[in-house]
């Protein structure tokens, strides 16, 4: 038998074996480049003993002078999270005074996620907190987009329980955004005497559309916003006073509305409406520059969108379309080019400069 015919037969045999017993594809492991180290400017406050006594870790993790940032962390959005962290550090005047509090699902490989962050940011002060989703899973109702039903989307409602009690204020950020301004400015937002959280408000949005006709037609439920000027706000960027949150038991208030949703469908949009029900009209408004949201399009098609008029400090790809997915597919939107410089993904053929 000639060598050529032998190769053909072996190829046919291999094809038959694969056809009968296909090899399952292993999950793609994303690797990221190491980010440059960023240093404090000369006038940054010194993190020393300005912390509570109930901390066994470094003083910075409970420091009142540090900027505390909370984000969720999972394999699906890790690329966005890494880009967001880089953007925060790059535009901060005091990057060494920033602490990241990452929340990961109990079912995730927290060790792998922690290693990914450490490899890209070996100097970063951070911790990973495990979120047991069983308590919230029973309260989640299906929404208009399956991605919104992920239990980790609800972790923002449990930050006061997950983070150490000594952390009194935190800036919550989604993973599909980048900052182009100093986060310390946002973190220093004045919450006044009694506001629990601050965020950009959008009072021109059709607020009634966030709830069903069953909600508005109910004589009792429709009075929920009777004594407040309720406006839409996006929960992907918030400054939260965790001390006031704990004192007011706001997690329980959100859960009460989620339980109501299980009995009677009063909204369609995942974790957002419970926040609106509890806080709309009661938050401290923040300049719109701190959440140029909607760059991911709507929840169905993810079409390209332009920026809102005005200055920009934070770009947010809320919606179905994510910049990394559109870039990989070769169909980016014009504004996705603003996200790309923060992408630390190590491609197989990338050469170090």
UniProtKB/TrEMBL annotation:
Biological-process GO terms, alphabetical: cell wall organization
Signal peptide: 1-25
GO MF, any single term: glycosyltransferase activity
Cellular-component GO terms for this entry: Golgi apparatus
UniProt keyword list: Cell wall biogenesis/degradation, Glycoprotein, Glycosyltransferase, Membrane, Signal, Signal-anchor, Transferase, Transmembrane, Transmembrane helix
Annotated pathway: Glycan metabolism; pectin biosynthesis
InterPro entries tied to this protein: Glyco_trans_8, Glycosyltrans_8_dom-fam, Nucleotide-diphossugar_trans
UniProt xrefs under Pfam families: Glyco_transf_8
Enzyme Commission (EC) number: 2.4.1.-
Membrane topology, from the record: Single-pass type II membrane protein
Keyword Nucleotide-binding: no
Predominant place of localization: membrane
Subcellular location: Endomembrane system
Record-linked Gene3D superfamilies: Spore Coat Polysaccharide Biosynthesis Protein SpsA, Chain A (3.90.550.10)
Family to which this protein belongs: Belongs to the glycosyltransferase 8 family.
Designated name of the protein: Hexosyltransferase
